[in-house]
Design brief:
CATH topology of one domain: Rossmann fold
Oligomer: single chain
Largest sheet: 7 strands, parallel
Number of helices: 26
Pfam families: AAA_26 (PF13500), PTA_PTB (PF01515)
Shape: globular
CATH superfamily of one domain: P-loop containing nucleotide triphosphate hydrolases
InterPro entries: P-loop_NTPase (IPR027417), P_AcTrfase_dom1 (IPR042113), P_AcTrfase_dom2 (IPR042112), Phos_Acetyltrans/Butyryltrans (IPR050500), PTA_PTB (IPR002505), Ser_kin/Pase_Hpr-like_N_sf (IPR028979)
Protein name: Phosphate acetyl/butaryl transferase domain-containing protein
Helix content: 40-55%
Radius of gyration: 33 Å
Low-confidence stretches: 238-249, 283-303, 503-507
CATH architecture of one domain: 3-Layer(aba) Sandwich
Organism: Auxenochlorella protothecoides (Green microalga)
Distance between the termini: 38 Å
Strand order of the largest sheet: 3-2-4-1-5-6-7
CATH class of one domain: Alpha Beta
Structural class: alpha/beta
Number of strands: 20
Mean pLDDT: 84
Strand content: 15-25%
Keywords: Acyltransferase, Transferase
C-alpha cells in the first residue's frame, strides 16, 4: 500500500496551503508516484478560468506541483454533495463513495497526501468528521494548528490545546502522527517553537515545527478578489490589494500610511473601489508606482478619453477589474475574501515552499510515516476487498424468490457493481412485472424459468442418480424440481451456477462463521449457527476451517480458542475440552497462530492481554478469529455484540461444503443480500482455485 499522511487543520481554518505545498514538494523529491486527495472537495473556484468549479487545493496542486491526475480523481465527493449527505444523516454513503475513489488512487501511488475537510457551513464538528474519515481510510493525521497573530498564547497553552485535539481525534479511533504550527507570529516565532517543543518532549506527540505568519501569503491579491467576485480584468496586471474609500481618499490613504510606518508596519497597498462615473479616480492614481488596483461595477459607459489613456499605458499600469454586481454586493463580497493561494499565485507558491523548507522538520514527519503500524482492516476496507475479489473472478450466483423487492434490488446492485453474474429464478414475465412495480432495473441479470427450463430433464436425471438408494423416480424428481430452491440447488450442483451442493466430501464437518464488522476492525466468529456442542476434534476443525475462511477474505488469521480461562487461570471440563482442541488444531496446522484457552477480552484487547498473558503471544490482544466452545456461547455473543455496538454481522457463511450455500434471514435487508452474494462468490472462486491446484498437483505427481 501507499504511504499516506492526512493533514487536517484542527483550528477548522483554511490556511494550510503552505503545509500541503511543502509536503508535496518533499515527497516528489523522494518518489515519482505521488498523489493528492481530498475526501471532500472543498472551496470550488469561481470566476472565468480553466479551474472554475474545481476544489481550490486540487487545482493548486495540479497547477503548482505538476500533478497529472484527472481533477475528479483527486477528491472523493464534492462539497455541496457532502453537505447534502451529512445533512440527511447518510455518512456511510458518503464514506463509501470516498473510499472507492481513494482506493483507486492508492493502487497507482507510492505516497498520498490527504487533506481533511474544512467545508464552510458543514454541520457538526470538523475534527470529529476528519477523525472518522481518517480512521476509515486507515491513515495517520498530521495536525495543523493555526495561531492567533495578536494572542497566540504561551507555549504551555499551545501544547495543551494540541494534546486536547489529539485526545479528541483518538477518541474517534484516529491515529495521530504529529503536530505542525501555522501562522506563528514572526516576532515570537523562535520562543514559541522552542517552548512548544520542550512542552511536548515527553508527550509522544511528534512536533515538526512552526511556519511563521507571512505578509505576502497573508495579503489578498487581485487574482483572489477576481475569483471571489467573478470579475473581468480590463486593465493592468494583478498586484497586492486592500480596501479604501472614494472622496478625498488620497490624503486619507497618506495619513494611514504614515500612521502604519510609525507603528513599524511598512506594508500598505490599498485597493480602490469606485464606480464607472468616477473614472478620474484610477487615472489620478496612475503616476504613483506600486499602487495595486481599482474595482468598478457595471452601470456607466466607459469614458472614451479615460479608456484611451488606460489602453496606451499598457500592461504595467494598475489593474482594473469590472464586476457584474452593484456597489453594496461588491463590497460585501470583498469583505468576505480570505487571503489564500490560487493556482495562478506564482509568488505566493514560491514563498510558501521556501517557508516550509526553512521552518518545518519534514524528516520528523517522514519518520513518523515510516514507523511500522499494523494496518487496520476496517469494515469499509473489508467490504471493498471482498468486492475486488469478486470482480477479479466473476461468479454466477443464483437468486430464487425473484418476486421479493429486496432480492430484485440486491440483484440489480450486484450486477451493476460487477460483484457477480446474477441469475434470477422465475417466469420472465412475472419477474419483469415485479421489477417494474418496484422500479428496479434487472436488465443486467439473467432470468431462468425453473418450470420450463430446457435443463429440467438433465437435472431430473442427476437427482435420480444422486438418490438412487432411495429409489427416486424421474417423475418424482421432476416434481421436486418444481420447488424453486431445489431447482437452484441442482443448477449449482451440475455446474450451471456457483453455489450449493447435495452432500459433503469425505464427511467433513459443516460449520459456519460470521464476519463481525466492528467500528474499527473486522473479526471472524465461529461457530455461531450450526454445531451445538462440538467435540475437541470438531472444535479444532472449526478453528482451522475458520482460519482458512478468514484468509480467503483478506483477514490475517490469528486464532483465539475461547474459554472462561486464560492459559490455565481456571479449571473444569469445558476448559479441558478447549485445551485439547487447541493442541489438535496446532498439530494439524502448525502454520497458523493459535492461542488457547483464552478469554475474549485477553484475545482482542492489547491492554488486557498485557495483564493476563505472560510471555510472548502472536494472538493475545490481536486475535482476528474467535472460536467459541459451543453454540450457546457463540450465538449469544455475536448477537450481544451486534446489538450493543451496532456492528454489522455478515453471515452465517457455511464452511465445509463442496460448493458454497448461504442462507438469509427473513428480516434481511438489501445490503445483507448484497454482502451475502459477494461472500458466496468469493467462496465459489476459492473452491474453484483449490480444485485447480489439486488437479495440477495430481498431474504433476
Amino acid at each position: 500500500d501507499a504511504d499516506t499522511v492526512f493533514c487536517t487543520n484542527v483550528s477548522a481554518l483554511q490556511g494550510s496551503s503552505p503545509v500541503l505545498l511543502g509536503l508535496l514538494d518533499y515527497f516528489q523529491r523522494q518518489t515519482p508516484h505521488v498523489g493528492f486527495f481530498q475526501p471532500i472537495g472543498a472551496n470550488p473556484l469561481n470566476g472565468a478560468s480553466r479551474y472554475t468549479g474545481e476544489p481550490k487545493h486540487v487545482a493548486l496542486m495540479k497547477h503548482a506541483m505538476g500533478l497529472k491526475d484527472p481533477s475528479e480523481s483527486m477528491y472523493g465527493v464534492a462539497e455541496e454533495e457532502a453537505k447534502r449527505l451529512l445533512t440527511l444523516g447518510r455518512f456511510d454513503e458518503l464514506m463509501d463513495r470516498i473510499f472507492v475513489k481513494y482506493q483507486a488512487m492508492k493502487k497507482a501511488k507510492d505516497v498520498i497526501l490527504l487533506e481533511g475537510a474544512t467545508v464552510r457551513g458543514l454541520l457538526g464538528n470538523h475534527n470529529e468528521l476528519n477523525a472518522k474519515i481518517a480512521a476509515e481510510l486507515d491513515t495517520s493525521i498530521l495536525m495543523i494548528m493555526d495561531l492567533n497573530r495578536d494572542n497566540p498564547g504561551t507555549a504551555s497553552e499551545i501544547a495543551s490545546r494540541a494534546l486536547r485535539h489529539r485526545r479528541e481525534l483518538q477518541a474517534d479511533r484516529a491515529s495521530v502522527l504529529g503536530l505542525l504550527l501555522n501562522k506563528v507570529p514572526l516576532a515570537a516565532h523562535a520562543d514559541i517553537v522552542s517552548g512548544v517543543a520542550a512542552e511536548l518532549a515527553d508527550s509522544g506527540l511528534t512536533f515538526a515545527g512552526g511556519i511563521p505568519y507571512d505578509r505576502i501569503i497573508g495579503t489578498a491579491r487581485v487574482n483572489e478578489f477576481a475569483n471571489a467576485l467573478g470579475a473581468k480584468q480590463i486593465y493592468g496586471r494583478p498586484e497586492l490589494i486592500d480596501s479604501g474609500s472614494v472622496h478625498g481618499f488620497l490624503d486619507k490613504l497618506e495619513a494611514i500610511r504614515a500612521q502604519r510606518e510609525a507603528e513599524g508596519q511598512t506594508f500598505f497597498r490599498p485597493l480602490v473601489l469606485t464606480t464607472k462615473d468616477r473614472q478620474d479616480l484610477p487615472v489620478r492614481r496612475l503616476p504613483a508606482p506600486g499602487r495595486p488596483g481599482a474595482v468598478r461595477w457595471r452601470g456607466v459607459r466607459h469614458h472614451p478619453p479615460v479608456h484611451a489613456i488606460m489602453a496606451r499605458l499598457g500592461p504595467d499600469t494598475l489593474p482594473v477589474l469590472e464586476v457584474p454586481h452593484g456597489a453594496f454586493e461588491t463590497a460585501r463580497r470583498m469583505a468576505r475574501v480570505n487571503p489564500g493561494i490560487l493556482p495562478t499565485s506564482v509568488r505566493k507558491v514560491r514563498e510558501a515552499r521556501a517557508l516550509f523548507g526553512r521552518h518545518v522538520d519534514v524528516d520528523a514527519v517522514a519518520s513518523g510515516m515510516a514507523v511500522h503500524r499494523e494496518p487496520r482492516l476496517t469494515p469499509k476496507r473489508f467490504v471493498w476487498q471482498i468486492e475486488e475479489l469478486c470482480r477479479a473472478a466473476p461468479q454466477r450466483i443464483v437468486l430464487p424468490e425473484a418476486h421479493d423487492h429486496r432480492v430484485l434490488s440486491a440483484a440489480a446492485e450486484v450486477a451493476a457493481r460487477g460483484i457477480a453474474r446474477v441469475t434470477l429464478l422465475g417466469e420472465p414475465g412475472e419477474v419483469a412485472a415485479a421489477a417494474a412495480r418496484f422500479n428496479v432495473d434487472v436488465s443486467r441479470c439473467e432470468v431462468e424459468d425453473h418450470r420450463s427450463s430446457t435443463r429440467l430433464d438433465a437435472y431430473a436425471d442427476f437427482l435420480v442418480e444422486a438418490r438412487k438408494k432411495k429409489a427416486l423416480t424421474k417423475a418424482a424428481a421432476l416434481d421436486q424440481l418444481t420447488d424453486i430452491n431445489m431447482f437452484g440447488t441442482i443448477m449449482v450442483a451440475m455446474g450451471d451456477a456457483d453455489g450449493m451442493v447435495l452432500k459433503t466430501p469425505d464427511r467433513r464437518l459443516i460449520s459456519s462463521v460470521f464476519f463481525m464488522c466492528l467500528p474499527d476492525r473486522v473479526l471472524v466468529y465461529g461457530d455461531c449457527a450450526v454445531n451445538v456442542e462440538p467435540t475437541a476434534a470438531e472444535l479444532a476443525q472449526i478453528a482451522t476451517t475458520s482460519a482458512d475462511t478468514a484468509a480467503a477474505f483478506g483477514v490475517e488469521p490469528r486464532v483465539a480458542m475461547l474459554s472462561y480461562s486464560t492459559l490455565g487461570s481456571g479449571a473444569g471440563p469445558q476448559v479441558d475440552l478447549v485445551t485439547e482442541a487447541t493442541a489438535l488444531a496446532r498439530a494439524a496446522r502448525p502454520d497458523l497462530a493459535i492461542e488457547g484457552p483464552i478469554q475474549y477480552d485477553a484475545a482482542v484487547d492489547p491492554g488486557v492481554a498485557a495483564t493476563k498473558v505472560k510471555g510472548r503471544s502472536e494472538v493475545a490482544g490481536r486475535a482476528t478469529v474467535c472460536v467459541f466452545p459451543d453454540l450457546n456461547t457463540g450465538n449469544n455473543t455475536y448477537k450481544a455484540v451486534q446489538q450493543s455496538t451496532g456492528a454489522i454481522a455478515i453471515g452465517p457463511l457455511m464452511q465445509g461444503l463442496a460448493r458454497p450455500v448461504n442462507d438469509l434471514s427473513r428480516g434481511c435487508t438489501v445490503a445483507d443480500i448484497v454482502n451475502t452474494v459477494a461472500c458466496t462468490a468469493v467462496q465459489a472462486a476459492g473452491l474453484k482455485a483449490a480444485a485447480q491446484q489439486a488437479t495440477s498437483a495430481a498431474a504433476a505427481a
